[in-house]
Amino acid sequence: MRRFGKASVLLVGVVLAALGFPARASATPPGPNGLIAFSASTESGVQLFTVHPNGKDLRQITDVVGEAVNVDWSPDGRRLVFTIADETSSRIAVAGADGSHLRVLPQPGSTDEC
């Protein structure tokens, strides 16, 4: 009977994980009322935006060729890391929280200069 009880607890844990109960969300940098970073479609493709939780001060922070997606904050909230994707490749990019100092990282094994 004990074995069945442990298996049931494990099964419940797996089901809850499969339903998508995340351990932690990271849409905003650390601290109260941080900016929310997200991707949205524009006339020039999918770009990154930031906005305050109250919906004020919406700001487009990228204007890249391709789609700026999969955004996340650095632990200190000063930078954003995201993917720039097009039909043939995806590249990792880093920029300041305001979109400044954009740097596209080289592909592994690549000789590209940034």
Structural summary, described in words:
The chain has 114 residues and is of the alpha+beta class. It has one domain. Helices cover 15% and strands 34% of the residues. The protein contains one helix and seven strands; from the N terminus they run αβββββββ. The chain has a four-stranded antiparallel β-sheet, with no helix packed on it. It has a three-stranded antiparallel β-sheet with strand order 1-2-3, with no helix packed on it. β2 and β3 form a beta hairpin. The N terminus is likely disordered.
Quick tags:
7 strands, 114 residues, disordered N terminus, 34% strand, alpha+beta, 3-stranded antiparallel beta sheet, globular
Percent range for β-strand residues: 25-35%
Number of discrete domains: 1
Q: What sort of overall outline do the alpha carbons produce when their principal axes are compared?
A: globular
Following the backbone from N to C, one meets helices and strands in this order, namely: HEEEEEEE
Strand order of the largest sheet: 4-5-6-7
- Please tell me how large the radius of gyration is: 19 Å
What is the helix tally?
1
Roughly how many Å apart are the termini? Answer: 61 Å
Amount of helix: 10-25%
Mean residue pLDDT: 79
**SSE class:** alpha+beta
Largest sheet: 4 strands, antiparallel
Q: What is the strand tally?
A: 7
Which segments are poorly predicted (pLDDT under 50) over 5 or more consecutive residues? 1-10, 21-25
